[in-house]
Structure formats: C-alpha cells, structure tokens
Design a protein that fits this description.
CATH architecture of the largest domain: 2-Layer Sandwich
CATH superfamily of the largest domain: Reverse transcriptase/Diguanylate cyclase domain
Strand content: 15-25%
Largest sheet: 5 strands, parallel
Distance between the termini: 32 Å
Low-confidence stretches: 1-5, 76-83
Strand order of the largest sheet: 2-1-3-4-5
Mean pLDDT: 90
Structural class: alpha/beta
Number of helices: 10
C-alpha cells in the first residue's frame, strides 16, 4: 500500500522555463518536484513513478495537456496503486469551455496564467489534503482491521494483477494458503481475545518473513494467503515449511501455535485465479486431513 505520510510528489509540466523556476521556488520547500518541458517528457515521468499531483500546462508542446491526460487514462497507468494522481491544469487561456473540458477529463482544478503565488500555494495544499484523505480511505478499505494485512478484496485484486504479469512475461507464480490450527479450541478455552491474539501473532510471523513484493493477506477467520511472484513450487514449499516452524515457535497462554499450509503454483492446470485458489485450498485440506501442522503441495 502507498505511504501517505511521506513528502508529496508533484509533477510540473510546462515549456516556460521561467514559470517552472517560479513554481519550483514556490513549492520545493514543501514538496518533492519533478519537471517536464513537453508532453512526452511528462508521460515518461509518469510512467516511471506515481505523483500525488500533476500541474500541467494546457499548451504543452509535442503532446498538449488534454492529450496527455487522455493518454495517461488510456494507458491505465498506476491502476494498481493505492493512490491516484490529481491533475491541475495551468493555462494562459480562460475560456469557460476549456475549463469545462478540463474538469470533464477529471482535472481537480484549472488556474490561469499569470497566477497569484499565495493562491497557487493554497490551491495545491487543498488538493493534496484531499489526496491524503482519499488515499487513507482507500487504504482502510483494502486493509484487515485486526491484523493490518491486506484484506480479501485487496488480495483478489493483487492475485489477478500478478497472474496477468506472470502470463505476460512467462514468469512462475505460487500461492500459499495458511490456516491456523485449533483456533476454536483457543477461543473456547481462553476466550475470543486470545483467539484474536493468535491471529495477530500469525499475521506478524507471515508479514515478517516475506519480501517487499510478496503479498500477505487475511482471507477471513483463521485463514491467510501469500502471493509469491516469480516463485516456483519448490521455493514456495520451502517458505511454507519455514513459516510453519516459525508459527510453531509462538507461545500463547502457555501453548504453542501451529498452522497448516497448502501450496499451488501456476501451470497449465492451474492457470487462473479460481483454479489456483481451489488447488491451494484442496492442498490445505489435505494438510489438515493428514493431521495438521504440515505443508501439502497441489499436484500440477
């Protein structure tokens, strides 16, 4: 998920060097700035990184402001990120129809040149405050409140995205489904808060063991999932075995925790999200049926 507490990133796209210098002097004390002098440079910058706000000159050379925004939207850039870029148009033209077109394309503001510096600072601050609030709401909507992990909705989107990436580039992909053993017994013996503590302990172990680009989610109840991009079945099994040991080392109310694991990997048989999920679930069921506290791998 995006870090909304960091310094906001702004793209400034204009072919007037003096104006860029003025904007830089005005905004650089508070924000991280990137400069572009035509529409092609702006598009390249946006492809490289996300921005909280893009301030775009309507009359940019090579690709004008309207075409630039349409191109960004058409390319679906940064569709998988937790924050989206706001757009402010900056133009020497004040015709109402241009402002209406800008807003219809999704721009959040339209300022005319020359601009008042205090007004520019105030409008930018207002836009970024809204961006921060919206990013926080999106993050909340994609986060499990008990563990802080991605929730099922976020997991589903991530799985589809990683499957598409794996198909496009011919990369392996593995899915590990994790189920905490005997949670009902913990709840019955020690109460639901102890059960919640067991879930949080398991979540911390899982989140602490994966790399930045690997995704851990709580699917609900005592079940978790881990998406492992670029991981073959053998690597996924090794990770699952290590996680099983680490969860087993957790002590709650004087008792060791344990978990069961099902592993499935992308193949001709398991080639989409439903089949991959079903395969990992069936492997998990096999691990449970065989006595729990073990790893089972789906046959490709």
């Amino acid at each position: 998920m995006g870090n909304i507490s960091q310094r906001h990133a702004i793209l400034l796209a204009d072919d007037d060097d003096d104006l860029l210098d003025a904007l830089g002097e005005l905004l650089s004390p508070q924000y991280s700035l990137t400069f572009a002098r035509d529409g092609r440079q702006a598009m390249a910058a946006i492809r490289l990184r996300p921005f909280d706000l893009a301030i775009i000159d309507l009359g940019l050379p090579v690709v004008d402001g309207f075409k630039l925004v349409k191109g960004i939207q058409g390319a679906g850039l940064h569709a998988d990120q937790s924050q989206s870029s706001a757009v402010m148009f900056l133009s020497g033209q004040s015709a109402p129809q241009l402002k209406a077109k800008a807003l219809s394309l999704g721009a959040v503001d339209y300022m005319t040149k020359p601009f008042d510096p205090d007004e520019m600072v105030a409008r930018v601050a207002r836009i970024l405050a809204t961006v921060t609030r919206e990013a926080s709401l999106r993050a909340d909507a994609m986060t499990d409140p008990l563990t802080g992990l991605a929730n099922f909705r976020s997991f589903s989107q991530s799985l589809e995205r990683e499957l598409e990436r794996s198909r496009r580039y011919g990369l392996p992909l593995s899915l590990v489904t994790v189920d905490l053993d005997h949670l009902k017994s913990i709840n019955d013996e020690h109460g639901h808060e102890a059960g919640n503590e067991a879930i949080r302990l398991t979540a911390r172990v899982l989140a602490g063991a994966v790399r930045r680009f690997e995704i851990v989610a709580r699917q609900g109840g005592d079940e978790f999932a881990i998406i492992l991009p670029s991981a073959e079945s053998s690597a996924a099994r090794l990770l699952a075995e290590r996680l099983r040991d680490e969860i087993g080392a957790q002590i709650l109310r004087g008792q060791s925790l344990s978990a069961s694991f099902g592993v499935a990997s992308l193949s001709e048989t398991f080639c989409d999200a439903p089949s991959l999920l079903k395969a990992s679930d069936l492997a998990l069921y096999d691990a449970k049926r065989a006595g729990r506290d073990r790893v089972a791998v789906a046959d490709a």
